[in-house]
Amino acid sequence: MASVASTAARGPRRAPSRLSRFRERETWYAYAFILPWVVGFLALTLGPMVASLYFSFTDYGVQQIAGFEPTKYVGAENYRQLLDDGKVRTALGNTLTYTVMMVPATMIVALALAMTLLRIGKAAGFFRTVFYLPQITPPVAVAILLLLMFNGSFGIVNSSLERIGIPGPFWTSDPSWIKPGLVIMSVWSVGGTMVIYLAALHGVPQQLYEAAAMDGAGAWRRFRDVTLPMISPALFFTFIILTIAGLQNFTEAFTAYFGPGQAGAEAPEAALMYTIYLFRQAFQFFNMGFASAMAWLLFVITMIVTLVNVTVSRRFVFYQGGPK
Amino acid sequence: MSAQSQLGPAGVGAGTAPIPQIAVRARPRWPRGIGKFKQALFVVLVLVLSILFVYPFLWLISASFKPQSDTFDNRLIPTTWAWNYDRVFEIAPVATWLLNTLWIAGLGALLTTFSSAMVAFAFAYFRFPGRNVLFGLVLATMMLPSQVTMIPTYLIWNELGLVNTQYPLWVPQLFGSAFYIFLQRQFFLGIPRELFEAARMDGDSYWTMFWRIAVPLAKPALIVTFIFEVQAKWFDLMTPLIYLRDTALFTLPLGIKTVLDQFGQGGGGEGEYHVIVAATVILTVPMIILFAIFQRYFIEGIATEGRKG
User: Is A205 left (phi over 0), alpha (psi -120 to 50) or beta?
Assistant: First the structure.
């Protein structure tokens, strides 16, 4: 990322000579201070990464964990299976569908809320807190709320809809309504995104609006030509964060639709997120090799999506004070 | 953008609010102001929306005081009152789960806060070979989905014989966390370097500089780290799901999930949703209390995160 290089370069000046610094106490103290991270990085990030890449080319599973059978190198077999496995395709499709619905919905609702809050004066602080509340609800609780409120026969959502004459769908059992239900609950937790937009909107210089109005720009044009470009870094940031969160979504769908007891036999396919299938492969069927391949596919997809975002955003994102 | 403008030590040491709030200014956005009438309309709109956002909480709490037959009732004041909380503590070791979660979240967050602070301080203050490369690595790890390292990490714990213990839930917090290192480093960079130079003149050790000067001044950033990590632990279902087998070791999210599976209809239960509702309230309320106490830090922490983009 472009910002990575620039933030790293900020900070204290670099010393004149590199090697001579090893003779200084400061250098050794510095290494002592970052030691916790270095140990953690080697033991819990880099090491496991390499191991995971290796496992993805083996048949590592229950037999191998127990030491009954040696680990066998299977080449790209796991990756070939990824393509053949219909459930991987279903899970990937579910995850992408969910993400494609959730990200724009969250961004639009968050922006609408933030812009409304800007217009109500002093009470905004109080309401900002109110809208933030769902964000602190544990995902397991969110999933339970989803099951109860959106229950097709008894839920308060459908009974409310009925009162205004709309027959509500079976949100939690009809395969085509399961993902919209999950998306609605995600949009409920829009508070964090909203707070980010609110902060960005406060950073837009007032003179720009005045100048735009002077030139006869209407409300829509001021929004399109002043507000949007000025808050585009925040929009871009939340877009990436939400997309990654969407791709890795696990807890809500798992809690609501996958009981550990039933091994997923009756669980609805429409709720099978990619990470849920990965989790089951790894920790319920103990197909560690295959699950590792799934994890690397997820990593590659995340990287591609982020890189595309960063590249595309160069054209749209406007940083005050020049490009970073 | 300077570090000053972010979490900003603007109020630090001056006895004012430690984190400058992103004050929601009263001034109207549009040049000529929007009329009183229009503003009233917006207030009504916000009011309606906020009821929509809070309603699930109110309904949940009210449902937890209703008898089994009325759980799905859409009335905020129960027609018949019932006390379901006794039953929750009876059917499952909820009290144990609550205590487990409290100490794991508390200890884990404390460890993350201080290990991240040490690392962040080093990246902000010391000059050492490889600093920029290493800091780049710190940032790069934020991109990595946890699923990639999840399996080998499990195998390590398995090898150590520590699966089905609570160690895997908090020991990794000893090693700092990339996002918090990034956040705190920004904050440390905002502390005037002269303060440290002066301390060195006085013969203070590096540790004293960190512990007596940097840490107290960076308190707001440390609090943000602490509460974010408590929240993360309180939300986490996957880690306990992977590592814990004994019911007595469970954390609340995992415990409540098993309650749902046992008593909801999905898992073959009889649909005792009044119990599930009460359990959900127990899971949620501690977070609401945490938020009530540290509200400003939550919101400023999130806003800061956004400004990093």
Answer: beta
Token pair listed for A294: 């799934």
Fold of the domain spanning B3-34+83-307: MetI-like fold (1.10.3720)
| b/e map B71-95, b = 16+ CB within 10 Å | bbbbeeeeeeebebbebbeeebebe
Decide if A291 contacts B151 (C-beta within 8 A).
Answer: yes
| CATH assignment of A77-316, among 3.30.565.10, 1.20.1540.10, 3.40.50.1820, 1.10.3720.10 | 1.10.3720.10
> Are B241 and A279 inside 8 Å of each other by CB?
yes
Q: What is the overall mean pLDDT for chain A?
A: 87
A79 versus A24: the higher-pLDDT residue is: A79
Q: List the Cα angle A237/A241/A245 in 5-degree steps.
A: 165
How is A275-302 classified by DSSP, letter by letter? HHHHHHHHHTS--HHHHHHHHHHHHHHH
Nearest CA in chain B to A192: B302
Q: Is the pLDDT of residue A154 over 80?
A: yes
Average pLDDT of B10-14?
32
> What digits encode the pLDDT tens for the residues B248-298?
999 999 999 999 988 876 555 567 889 999 999 999 999 999 999 998 899
What interface predicted TM-score (ipTM) does this complex get?
0.85
* Contacts with A, B 65-124, CB within 8 Å: 71-72, 74, 115, 118-119, 121-124
Tokens of A239: 């877009």
Q: Does B165 touch chain A (CB under 8 A)?
A: no
Nearest to B303 among A19, A199, A247 (CB): A199
- Judge whether A29 is closer than 8 Å to chain B, CB to CB: yes
Q: How far is CA A218 from CA A211, B33, B258, in A?
A: 12, 14, 55
> Which residue is closest to A205 within chain B, CA to CA?
B29
